[in-house]
Amino acid sequence: SALPALLQAAPKAELHLHIEGSLEPELMFELAQRNHIQLSYPDVASLRQAYAFSNLQSFLDIYYAGASVLITAADFEAMCWAYCQRAAADGIVRAELFFDPQTHTERGIALATVLEGLLAGIKRAERELGLSLDLIPCFLRHLSEAEALQTLQALEPFREQIIGVGLDSSERGHPPLKFARAFAAARAMGLHVVAHAGEEGPAAYIWSALEDLGVERIDHGVRCLEDPDLVAHLRQQRIPLTVCPLSNVKLRVFDKLQEHCLPRLLDEGLMVMLNSDDPAYFGGYLGENLRQCFDALPQLGAEQAYRLLRNSLEASFATDADKHTWI
Ligand code: ES4
Ligand code: ZN
């Protein structure tokens, strides 16, 4: 089909991208060497071989170990700039980048260092690539709500450098309700709020993210299909679901792309779009997600392509003025 070539060039937004998940093995080894950090794998090839995951947790263990090579602002800048170049090559005009402050502060890296580096990468990409970029720090849900509240407090001096907060990491056993007060505090600061829900966790966690946290978008959300009342609610309220097909296959949410529920989500009239999640770990950036989905899923055609791309721009937290230049 000629569709993928057209899709590649069309303007689009990426709304579910963990910047630490864009750290390619080559850069990881370069930073490890420069910072005198010993990785658990001898080289790029053996590290890549370890990227065979059985579930979310088996990925997270390797992903947090990989992030340990990030020490200086220049390290964060290099990672961010590398992602932005890949994004621009895929026709991305707008990206909202997740990062995990606690992964770094727990290792003794100052939040100011993390932000200095990421913002330097962002400024360069805005200037040299014309991208529109913003940052969304996420709370780690395997840690306590008290730690999330401390993180939010640490972010207060950087309020103007972020547009929202999210919730990520191990989903099962950590329902959204656990973070109700942290999210209420974030909303009181005027921040946008999103949360991972219904990736490995049940549809009830999607309800809880909406009702207990007040989120504006659901990250993943693919398990909503298990609850018809929830599907009706998501459709009526036009709540965006930031779907990540290659991630879902790598983490065994679906056995293969041919079995992914994306066509059904679209048929149900839901506000879905494609995202790469952790592209360095899951086998491809946004363009690759689009290509592989349109190859594997014959139910997808031009109509669905248009909706996915339009939804991505519409569901973004960009200003209406910016959205109008893209849509
Ligand atoms: C993540 Cl795929 C996914 N799910 C939950 N938390 C995450 N952090 C980075 N990638
Ligand atoms: Zn994610």
Automatic annotation (TrEMBL):
<feature type="binding site">
    <location>
        <position position="196"/>
    </location>
    <ligand>
        <name>Zn(2+)</name>
    </ligand>
</feature>
<feature type="site" description="Important for catalytic activity">
    <location>
        <position position="220"/>
    </location>
</feature>
<feature type="domain" description="Adenosine deaminase">
    <location>
        <begin position="11"/>
        <end position="327"/>
    </location>
</feature>
<feature type="active site" description="Proton donor">
    <location>
        <position position="199"/>
    </location>
</feature>
<dbReference type="InterPro" id="IPR028892">
    <property type="entry name" value="ADE"/>
</dbReference>
<dbReference type="Pfam" id="PF00962">
    <property type="entry name" value="A_deaminase"/>
</dbReference>
<keyword id="KW-0546">Nucleotide metabolism</keyword>
<dbReference type="GO" id="GO:0016787">
    <property type="term" value="F:hydrolase activity"/>
</dbReference>
<protein>
    <recommendedName>
        <fullName>Adenine deaminase</fullName>
        <ecNumber>3.5.4.2</ecNumber>
    </recommendedName>
</protein>
<dbReference type="InterPro" id="IPR032466">
    <property type="entry name" value="Metal_Hydrolase"/>
</dbReference>
<keyword id="KW-0862">Zinc</keyword>
<comment type="similarity">
    <text>Belongs to the metallo-dependent hydrolases superfamily. Adenosine and AMP deaminases family. Adenine deaminase type 2 subfamily.</text>
</comment>
<feature type="binding site">
    <location>
        <position position="18"/>
    </location>
    <ligand>
        <name>Zn(2+)</name>
    </ligand>
</feature>
<keyword id="KW-0378">Hydrolase</keyword>
<dbReference type="InterPro" id="IPR006330">
    <property type="entry name" value="Ado/ade_deaminase"/>
</dbReference>
<dbReference type="InterPro" id="IPR001365">
    <property type="entry name" value="A_deaminase_dom"/>
</dbReference>
<feature type="binding site">
    <location>
        <position position="277"/>
    </location>
    <ligand>
        <name>Zn(2+)</name>
    </ligand>
</feature>
<feature type="binding site">
    <location>
        <position position="278"/>
    </location>
    <ligand>
        <name>substrate</name>
    </ligand>
</feature>
<feature type="binding site">
    <location>
        <position position="16"/>
    </location>
    <ligand>
        <name>Zn(2+)</name>
    </ligand>
</feature>
<comment type="function">
    <text>Catalyzes the hydrolytic deamination of adenine to hypoxanthine. Plays an important role in the purine salvage pathway and in nitrogen catabolism.</text>
</comment>
<keyword id="KW-0479">Metal-binding</keyword>
